Amino acid sequence: MSVSESATLSRSRTRSLLARLEGPQTMGRGPGFWGGAALAVAAAAAYPLMADAWTVGNAAYFLIWTFMAMGLGVVWGYAGALSFGQTAFFGLAGYAYGVITLNLGAAYGLTLLALVLAVAIGGLFALVIGYFMFYGRIQGVFIGIVTLSVTLVLETFMAQTAGPQWRIGEARLNGFNGMSGMPPLTLPWIGGDIVLYPGPSLYYLLLGLVVVCYLGLRIMLNSPFGNVLVAIRENPHRVGMLGYDVRLYQTLAFAIGGAFAALSGALYTAWGQYITPSSMGLTSAALPIVWVAVGGRRDITATLIGTIVVLAGFQSLTIYGSQYALVVMGALLLLTVLVAPQGLIIGAMTLLGRIFKSRKS
Amino acid sequence: MALFQSVFAMLYQFGDTFAFLVISCAGLAVIFGMMGVINLAHGEFIMCGAYVTASTARVGVPLPLAILIGALVAGAVGMIVERLVIRHLYHRPLDSIIATWGISLIATQGVLIVLGSTMQGVGTPLGSIDVGGRSYSLYRIVLMACALGLLGGLYLLFYHSRFGVIARATIQKPQMAHALGVNTGRMYGLTFGLGAALAGLAGGLYAPTMTMVPTMGATFIVESFVTVVVGGADIFVGAAPAAAILALIKAGLTAWYGQLFGQIGLLVTVILVIRILPGGLSGWLKGTSR
């Protein structure tokens, strides 16, 4: 093969990948949608110029959670397996990041290595759990029960690791109080490392990651892999009859969702420099379900927007009284299920689409 | 004598765990096994029963009556919840999980706001007995008897009463039962109410042994789900042996390695059972008997 031939081949491959940014599995297409998306990213990029560092660090906190939500969107909304235990991978990766950075230190960009390792550990754990579940032919509601027990057991295990005998190298697990004092993410740079404390620098890194992950997921969901996932959600038996290994696809989707939750967990630890067992508890496990269910689980865009909207909504709510936040959250879940089972954002998006279409015709 | 002592200690530990598993999973097993609804608010029905029992007992109502009142109140709440929420979700099992979780959040936090972070409980009645120098709570032995009575009572109710026949018919073939003149909607409501009442009963029975906090339901929910999952879809064939096996595992591990490993042993058992016997114990037992 000549050089120019391989260049055109790779170019056409890139083009076919980019073409998958739009497709049947994701809402939004055409210049209008992408213009809006670009505008939203530009607004998000301009945000730190107008706000003080604390607010920006707070906005970075919202962005951290979107990865876990998008992962759950893939597992639940697209592959149809409701996982209650995404926090297990979140917490595991959070602890892994802490243990690795406390042992290796933060020099030479080792925190980035720790981030990658933590995500890999979380993803592998999800792969193992997914293997047990899907190859054991666990279906429907049982998946929720198994994943919930996994995260609760991890919580009980971590909560009793108080005392000096529970240590991994330099890192003490500290039981119920959790670990603290991990270094934040650092970028190796000429003339000294850049330390990403919660603030504009971390915000920009997270914003970039969100955009990359979102676009990557769009490509994945519109690829043959994503189509098979949706087909499994709609009718697993038929997909099996057509010759696909349903279990393999479900396990892979679950591992991807787990890796995204792990990414959130490691970033969360790096952001706040602490992690506690309660991040794997019942209440924490409920949160991603709320974001994804309320926003809309069957579309990655709706999941992303819904998560940010719900998070921002709750934060403004807790200013008035944190004790009512959980009640409102429960009521919101109940309302969504009874009134708009598709999710509020998806409902709004279909409504918008219909309005635009009727205006055109 | 030393042998008798340790055997008795093991038996007591086993019976205690067995009773806890049976009593706490009964309500869940009825609602899930019969109706296919995963009720994540199960723990909150238990909490409701416990709170009602404790508050009526402190007013001066005798404890058995207070427990009964607790169960009835939980059952009534369950029927209201079924009418308002669950009824719309019978064909959407995943959504019913979400909805019951929403109810659970509202209930836990609502109780925390209204009644505060803890409530005064009732003391454990009946005192204790001495066997070979160690003392054992008599009330826990009563609870073991209650667990056996509960299993027997449920069996009689579902297999030897008119309500049981109609309920099972409704669950198995709703259209057929409807065509034969059964008010299936009411049967679903009653069955859900029965499950909630059983949960309330569990709360009432364990109220004297626990601290009254709004999150107390969470201590029950993992164990009861584990039992139901290991037992499989048919509650009568599956739940009792599942509780026995799990109690054996948990009591053994707790005795040798401590509480935590008992808990983790339960989880590992669930994953293994699901991997080896996807239909749970009842699916396996039925498969071999056919």
From TrEMBL, chain A:
User: Which Pfam families does the annotation name?
Assistant: BPD_transp_2 (PF02653)
Subcellular location(s): the record lists: Cell membrane
GO MF terms on file? branched-chain amino acid transmembrane transporter activity
Q: Which UniProt keywords apply?
A: Cell membrane, Membrane, Transmembrane, Transmembrane helix
Q: What is its main location?
A: membrane
Name any GO cellular component annotation. plasma membrane
The family database entries (InterPro entries) matched by this protein are listed as: ABC_transp_permease, LivM-like
Q: How does it sit in the membrane?
A: Multi-pass membrane protein
Q: Which residues cross the membrane?
A: 32-50, 62-81, 87-105, 112-134, 140-159, 202-221, 248-268, 274-294, 301-320, 326-352
Q: Which PANTHER family does this entry report, sorted A to Z? A: HIGH-AFFINITY BRANCHED-CHAIN AMINO ACID TRANSPORT PROTEIN BRAE, HIGH-AFFINITY BRANCHED-CHAIN AMINO ACID TRANSPORT SYSTEM PERMEASE
Can you name this protein? ABC transporter permease
Q: State the organism named in the record.
A: Thetidibacter halocola
From TrEMBL, chain B:
Could you provide one GO biological process annotation from this protein's UniProt record?
amino acid transport
Its membrane topology is listed as: Multi-pass membrane protein
Which residues belong to the signal peptide in this entry?
A: none
Location, primary (coarse class):
membrane
- Segments spanning the bilayer are 18-41, 61-86, 98-118, 138-158, 187-206, 226-249, 256-277
**Which locations, inside or outside the cell, does it occupy?**
Cell membrane
Q: Does the keyword Transferase apply?
A: no
Q: So which domain of life are we looking at?
A: Bacteria
List cellular component terms (GO).
plasma membrane
This protein's UniProt keywords:
Amino-acid transport, Cell membrane, Membrane, Transmembrane, Transmembrane helix, Transport
Q: Which family does it belong to?
A: Belongs to the binding-protein-dependent transport system permease family. LivHM subfamily.
What is the recorded name of this protein? Branched-chain amino acid ABC transporter permease
* Organism of provenance: Thetidibacter halocola
Q: What is the lineage of its organism?
A: Bacteria, Pseudomonadati, Pseudomonadota, Alphaproteobacteria, Rhodobacterales
